[in-house]
Amino acid sequence: MNSTQIPPDEDEEDMLLAMQLIGLRIVPYAIKTAIELDLLEIIAKAGPLGTHLSPLDLASKVAARNPDAPMMIDRLLRLLSAYSVCTCKLVNDKEGKEFRIYGLGKAGRKLIKDEDRFSLASTLRFTNPKFEGDMCSQLTASILEGGARAYERVYGDLIFKDMEKNENIRAEFNEAMLNHTSIVMKKILKTYNGFNSLSGGVLVDVGGGLGANLALILSRLPKLKGVNFDLPHVVSEAPKIKGVEHVGGDMFDAIPRGQAIFMKVKPNYFTINTFKALR
């Protein structure tokens, strides 16, 4: 029997990709909502990996008063299952009616707290969709007109200036960087042995925030000394870490000396001035 389905041509695949890209703006909002409702943590705590819960179960656990909450949670998680945040199974109730149940997907497991209580969810809380949406709305003007950057056009100042003045922004940023840095550095230390050659020397972390990188590195190499270098208002809130000296300053003025320099900063810093600062 001949199939009635015609294989998609290249133009159709291109169109589907374009449509998917347009729809991607919804995904961060959906993830943010799932995190705010604690849906992923609820699924994780319900049992071992592979445990699934129904939207009705989830709605009851978030204490939703909205009678349509199970249906809305179902639609939310059905979308996220397409991006491996959730897994989805079809099951039947006692009357044979089909419904969906949801578990944690591969990406979703990175959005719940790990054994050290770190999670990438805090990064989304800081770089939330509205925050980035407001900035992105100014990208066209920034390109055409120049001058102020997108963030500055929306909020009136550069983000790092805002963090000096706004305790809430600063706290959210520090929390996001602490979680992201700790998760990434734990992965790096499992496969990278380059820090071993520095044992007994001094490692300078430029833009080190609260010192999470150095804390993890020095926990493996206690003979190593660390200098955590960041803006004064950042290091003023950094906790005491054995073997680490917190130094405030500006990387474009001067950087403390050490046996090696480590940098984990946003790519927008990598201008010609960045490389001048490292000379």
Short description:
With 279 residues, the protein is of the alpha/beta class.
Q: What is the H/E order?
A: HHHHHEEHHHHHHEHEHEEH
Largest sheet: 4 strands, parallel
Overall morphology:
globular
* Number of structural domains: 3
Number of E-state strands: 6
CATH class of the largest domain: Mainly Alpha
- Low-confidence sequence ranges: none
- The order of strands across the largest sheet is 5-4-3-6
CATH topology name of the largest domain: Arc Repressor Mutant, subunit A
**What's the CATH H-level superfamily name of the largest domain?**
Winged helix-like DNA-binding domain superfamily/Winged helix DNA-binding domain
In the CATH hierarchy, what is the architecture of the largest domain at level 2? Orthogonal Bundle
Walk me through what this model shows:
- By secondary structure, the chain is an alpha/beta fold.
- It has 3 domains: 23-110, Arc Repressor Mutant, subunit A; 113-192, no CATH class; 194-279, Vaccinia Virus protein VP39 (Rossmann fold), CATH 3.40.50.
- The chain has helices at 10-23, 26-36, 39-45, 55-61, 69-81, 121-126, 129-136, 139-145, 150-155, 159-165, 167-191, 212-220, 232-235, 272-277, and strands at 86-92, 98-104, 202-206, 225-230, 244-248, 260-263.
- Helix 12 links the parallel strand 3 (202-206) and strand 4.
- It starts with 9 loop residues before the first helix and ends with a helix.
- The model has no long low-confidence stretch (mean pLDDT 89).
